[in-house]
Amino acid sequence: MSIPAVSIPAVSTPTVRVLLVDDHAVVRQGLRLFLGLDPNIEVVGEAGNGEEALAEAQRLLPDVVVMDLMMPVMDGITATKALRRALPDTEVIALTSTLEEHKVNGAIEAGAISYMLKDASSDTLADAIHAAARGEVRLHPEAARRLVRDFRSAEMRETLTPKETIVLQLIARGHSNRDIAADQGVSEATVKTHVSRLLSKLELESRTQAALYALKHGIASLDG
């Protein structure tokens, strides 16, 4: 007795609906052309700035928005933040030409799931789009390195005691150990202990490095 063959339907990859956002039409045209090579990616719309992107995203409800960061009217970071609030199920990929630290941090903090450079290959970008639709992160290696470094810096800041944080702030404002002791009502020896411990925790070698660290990470400001 022969057993009839059972056909098993092929598992299809769902089509990812994409909105392209860039203030240069030629860039959007190139992206559309490259992404058109992937049968499972459908470019459903385009926008030339963040304001247009937000309106088009709410109209088209794409799965993924590929977002330039430096645009007129509304920049990509501001648009990403607004878009993620309005459409939490839509993921955003930051696609830009810079690895400036404030851009990387700003995009990720705004809610971008991935950070890519415009010189990425079409295959790399397509992979990032499919990954974003699955809720997976794709980061340019240098962007990832900077994020890890900043995360480590945040972790180190959290190890400082409240008193050590105050001492660090006063160091950044140019106060000597004697000044800090008088300000805090403690002995100069106690201040020296605080300074030694905070330098060790932050893996810094000098008061100057500590001051720069505090200013860079917003722990202190030159205004007071």
From TrEMBL:
PROSITE patterns listed in its UniProt record: HTH_LUXR_2 (PS50043), RESPONSE_REGULATORY (PS50110)
InterPro entries with a match to the protein in the record: CheY-like_superfamily (IPR011006), NreC/VraR/RcsB-like_REC (IPR058245), Sig_transdc_resp-reg_C-effctor (IPR016032), Sig_transdc_resp-reg_receiver (IPR001789), Tscrpt_reg_LuxR_C (IPR000792), WalR-like (IPR039420)
GO process annotations (BP): phosphorelay signal transduction system; regulation of DNA-templated transcription
Domain HTH luxR-type: 153-218
Residue(s) carrying 4-aspartylphosphate: D68
Family matches, as PANTHER family: TWO-COMPONENT RESPONSE REGULATOR (PTHR43214:SF43)
Identification of the protein by name: DNA-binding response regulator, LuxR family
Species this protein is from: Deinococcus marmoris
